[in-house]
């Protein structure tokens, strides 16, 4: 089944914050799941252009799609969305919708949709902290000086 990109853009532009509207478009997107890369790319482009209030609606749509994709065993959708969520979250720094977006992060954490590391990274982006503190902490905790010294000696 082919994807009508113009139709998708229109659907994304007019989706409302109502449960019926979000679920209806979510089902349409999941029906076209073979085009997940293109769909997510178009979703992000619409997100980037949207006003703050519509960005929240698009985030809720992403949440619905991601949770249903995870439940229905389509992990590619969930995984591919992760990179775009980082970009989208970075656009919402100090925005009036940030508290609502953080509630979505809590849901993903509680339902094991995404890893704790990714959620912490998203929260860092949402608060304006671009440093990946969880990743840095893990690297520091796992660093073994003796192994580094051994590797340096072997290269001589």
Automatic annotation (TrEMBL):
Keywords: Acetylation, Methylation, Phosphoprotein
CID domain: residues covered: 1-130
TM helices/strands, residue ranges: none
A GO MF label: RNA polymerase II complex binding
Superkingdom: Eukaryota
CDD domains in UniProt: CID_RPRD_like (cd16981)
Chloroplast recorded as keyword: no
Single Gene Ontology BP annotation: mRNA 3'-end processing
Listed PANTHER family: CYCLIN-DEPENDENT KINASE INHIBITOR-RELATED PROTEIN, REGULATION OF NUCLEAR PRE-MRNA DOMAIN-CONTAINING PROTEIN 2
Quaternary context: Associates with the RNA polymerase II complex.
Name this polypeptide is given: Regulation of nuclear pre-mRNA domain-containing protein 2
